[in-house]
Amino acid sequence: MYGFEPLQTPVLELHETLMGKYGEDAEKLIFNAQHPAAKKSLRLRYDLTVPLARVVAQYQNEIPIPFKRYQLSPVWRAERPQRGATASSTSVTRILSA
Taking the complete model, does pTM exceed 0.85, yes or no? Predict the structure, then answer.
């Protein structure tokens, strides 16, 4: 797609990672997705910003320049949906780093 490659990230993030971006007010907006046997607290992603930042930080020395990716992925928001809407939606992100 115009030289952009797809980027896929996990739908679950660590609770601490998401709260670091959104703050305490977001606690009521993010779905808990905890597995009973899991040792760490997990949440469903609210948008694609945190997963992208994690990928860039984790692979900063391996990312080619320009970094051209797109991501078309579901996100979940625990806020009360407007009439005709649902708690999940699809978010599109286009990334270009020169």
Answer: no
Task: Return the bridge partners of 13, or none.
Answer: 43
Q: Which amino acid is residue 33, in one-letter code?
A: A
pLDDT along the chain (98 residues), means of 10: 82 79 70 77 82 86 86 78 57 54
User: Using CA atoms, how far apart are residues 43 and 5, in angstroms rounded to an integer?
Assistant: 26
Q: Are 40 and 34 in contact (CB under 8 A)?
A: no
**pLDDT reported for residue 98:** 45
CA-to-CA separations, 69 to 5, 7, 48, 54, 64, in angstroms, rounded: 5, 6, 13, 15, 11
